[in-house]
Amino acid sequence: MQAEAAAARQAGPTAIPGAAGAPHPTCNPIAAGAFDPDAADVFAGSDDAPDSASASLSEADGDVQEGVHTYSREEDYVWPEEPLLRERLEWFRDQKLGLMMHWGPYSQLGIVESWALDDVDEEWSRDGIDWTDDPARIKREVAGLNRTFNPLRFQPERWAELAAESGFRYLNFTTKHHDGFCMWDTKTTGYSVTGRDTPFHSHPHADVCRALFDAFRARGLAISAYFSKADWHTPSYWSPDMPRERTSRGPSYDPAEHPSLWEKFVSYTHEQLDELLTHYGRIDMLWLDAGWVGPRSGQDIRLGEAVERARLRQPWLLSADRTIGGPYENVVTPEQTLPERPMLVPWESCITMGTAFSFRYEEEYKSVRELVHLLVEIVAKGGNLALNVAPQPDGRLPRSAIERMKGLGAWLRANGEAIYGTRPIAPFGDGQWFFTAKDGNVYAIRLYAEGEAVQERLELPLAAGLADGISQGMDGVPPGSFARAEALAGPDGAAIPALLERSGAGLALTVPEPLRAEPNPLALAFRLTKAQEGGR
Fold first, then answer.
1. How many CB atoms lie within 10 A of CB 505?
2. CATH class of 423-530
3. Which of 51, 370, 435, 463 is the most core-located residue (most Cβ within 10 A)?
4. b/e for 353-372, b at 16 or more Cβ within 10 A?
5. What are the tens digits of pLDDT across the range 327-350?
6. Is the pTM of this model over 0.85?
7. Digit-coded pLDDT (tens) for 374-408
């Protein structure tokens, strides 16, 4: 795939409840680490300093709007040639539910991650900052939040236990956001959670990435390491020797005009990636943010070299180089949205449980019903959900978020057969019904709105959308091919037979009486078994 064509947004994405109409910065954490007053002009800029040539560089801004990344087109996807990577992509598509976490010193203020450091994006990125409107002060104080970051109530084992019990299959954690603050024990900079200016540095779990990765692996969850390719703290990206009147997301200089400085940044980035991918155990996916950093913007970090070097040690490693396309975007990553139609390539929507990726005081979370419906639709369209839950600054997870995680887990314990390991099948859904397939079975999932009662007889909309789905390359559901139906969520955990009848051009189900007794279920899942067993 040509990288130039890789980053167009899919037409007609589905809006996410609680996300539409508000700026939701792309997965990021805000700064932390020891602020160096001698390098203050990196953040403050200078009124009489000319803008760097990079201010007018194409930073692939069309790929990131108000901090939210667009996503690459299905038709531009490049399947890897290596059999092991193809096998791992099928494994990834089986997982369906990941826990994403944005956490760092910015959590203390309940503001957007990293982006408050960027003057060009101030209109939306500083809407939570109400104590001053002085840009220099904002950047100085946000960058200095590492000096008070001390999450003493951090309990990685409890996070992992909750995630496992709630049906999550992998963790995607922000090792470093655009601010450049590292959540691992890096040797590349003191701007880190183990840096001497961060109070938490002496805590037994100060190496946050190690503590989390070990705890989640011990519970059987895989690890996806979020890493920002941009770094707004290191002087080889935002150089104090080349200040700008206003900071922006790209480097403070033109890499083409200063190749030796850019090479310093490339080496710095590779060294950090080598640390994470060598000393932190098995990493299943490297999830790369900051889509404006890439060859087409003149910011080539030679990512392929770093990934291939890591694969010498971890040959199973998947790479999600967001919006860049080509051989290192193994997974397409819609953000705060999902495609209108199924995509038959590996994809994952990162969507917040609340209104933002970072912790917010008095946050409003999506209901368990909304989360179940969101997951079902994403899975029916062939994707995974990376559900972002932002930890509190003290190291705990918000109580309301925990309640929703547990509610989602309870539904999955009864109905997970219709979710995990499935693939899309036509017709994938009509907004009320959604369909998945696995091991010769088809699963029909009926979503229920708040207050909606269960009717005894349900019509399956199999004819609608069937031809269109098959034309996209999906298998289809022939209405007359099923011998029996069963409801998955029986009172004792066992499936209950459900009467299945022909109804016009489709099928009708009679909901078993025990399920009709529930006044307003979140969603009901039915297993439709074919007369003759077939493959997936």
1. 12
2. mainly beta
3. 435
4. bbbbbbbbeebebbebbbbb
5. 999 999 999 999 999 999 999 999
6. yes
7. 999 999 999 999 999 999 999 999 999 999 999 99
Domain extents for the chain? 64-418, 423-530
Q: Which tokens is 304 given?
A: 């392929």
CATH level 3 topology of 64-418:
TIM Barrel (3.20.20)
- The helix, strand and coil proportions of the chain, stated in percent and rounded to the nearest 5, come to 30, 20, 50
- Residues 299, 291: contact at Cβ < 8 Å? no
pLDDT for 455-505, tens place per residue? 999 999 886 555 454 445 556 666 567 889 999 987 777 899 999 998 876
Rounded Cα gap, residues 59 and 220, in angstroms: 39
Closest CA to 252 of 429, 120, 127: 120
Contact 7, 325 (CB under 8 A): yes
Residues in the chain: 536
116 DSSP assignment:
G
Q: Residues of 183-198 as b/e, b for ≥16 C-beta within 10 angstroms? A: bbbbebbbbbbbbebb
In sequence order, which residues have a C-beta less than 8 Å from that of residue 129 and are 6 or more positions away? 109, 111, 116, 138
407 and 370 Cβ atoms separated by less than 8 Å: no
